[in-house]
Amino acid sequence: MLEIRYSEIEFFITIILIVATSIQILYYGLIYSRIALFKHKANTSESKNLPVSIIICAKNEEDNLRKFLPLILEQQYPAFEVILVNDCSEDDTESFITNLQKKYTNLKYTFIKDDPKFKHGKKLAVTLGIKAAQYNHFVFIDADCYPETPQWLQCISSQFNESTYIVLGYGGYEPKTGFLDKLVRYDTFFIALNYLSFARIGLPYMGVGRNMAYSRAAYEQSSKFTKHYHILSGDDDLFVCEVGRRGNTRIELSGQGFTRSEQVETFAQWCSQKRRHLTTASSYRFIHQFLLALEPLTRMLMFSFILIYAILLSTTLLYVVISLVSMRFLLQLIIHNLTMNRLHESKLLVYSPLFDVLLPFLISILMIQNKLNTRKRRWK
Q: Which CA distances in Å does 324 have to 19, 24, 124, 303, 307?
């Protein structure tokens, strides 16, 4: 029987730890630093003041529309329309919009009638909004979101030019108090760090419907959601994954082009929302799936083997391990601090080490639950 010596196990653990930590350093140094060190480019005359159509899909969102829609309609921008798609709402959305149209002539309204025999996701509402749009550039925001500034539309639309078909913005959540607030906002921040950074290195794979834009040309080049219509989510990320490429996608991080949303109320609601978002990941391109899986995998390996390394009181390559692990955590804190300040996410840095450990394991559990429960879900 082959005998494995203790020193061999120790050496194996050390090598895995070194490799995993080195990969983590590469992610922060080569990819995530692109947002922390991002330099915003001034608007060019080529991209200023393009007429745009803002598309909002709403399902029983009357209360949010009353609070947030005026903030969108009163954006400081010379030529835009707002198209509200009422998706089978059972509240008084229609009455509210009809009255609001008397004040805002650039507010348009269309709707989907409820049909028990026909189940649909948000993609149908987005499609109707695009068909109703008179302009060739579309800006998307959710009904429960609001722009941080009156210059939001100017900032997003100014990123369009002859070669840019897709613009990705940041959509954060309103700060609250408590542990759930920190979890929700940190998770949102880290997702943004990923998709904005990947767009910067020429591998755009997603955006968020809370704050993104694309042209009619991009929509016409796509499958118009038919490739993934069977997936109720994915009107935003799967569209970008399909059409977005190096050179045709830009990001908006000027600081005045962000949006905010109200948070979920409970941890169970966050888990349900997170599980729904995770259903689209298997439809990403292979390169995206590989890179997005490699980061949390090496992070889990790093933390697990740090623990094992400490328990064994290993001294194999001790100084190399300490140096790499210290470098990784220092680099992470620097990148997170710079990026959180850029994205206006306050009081999150102190929670970075905790969620850095917790989230990959928690998301893995949610992904397993999705595998065990393939029951289809509505978009709302």
A: 10, 10, 49, 13, 15
Domain ranges of the chain: 6-37+287-347, 52-194+201-262
| 49 neighbors 77 (Cβ within 8 angstroms) | yes
Give 88-138 pLDDT, tens digit per residue: 888 999 999 999 999 999 999 998 887 766 778 888 999 999 999 999 999
Give the integer Cα–Cα distance in Å for 79 and 265. Answer: 37
Helix (H, G, I), strand (E, B) or coil at 315: coil
The residues of the chain scoring below 50 in pLDDT are 1-4, 376-377
CATH number at 52-194+201-262: 3.90.550.10
Q: What's the rounded Cα separation, in Å, for the pair 197 and 36?
A: 9
Q: What is the DSSP string of 7-71?
A: HHHHHHHHHHHHHHHHHHHHIIIIIIHHHHT--PPPP-TTTTT--EEEEEEESS-HHHHHHHHHH
Question: What pTM does this model have?
Answer: 0.91
Which residue, 255, 277, 295, is CA-closest to 23?
Answer: 295
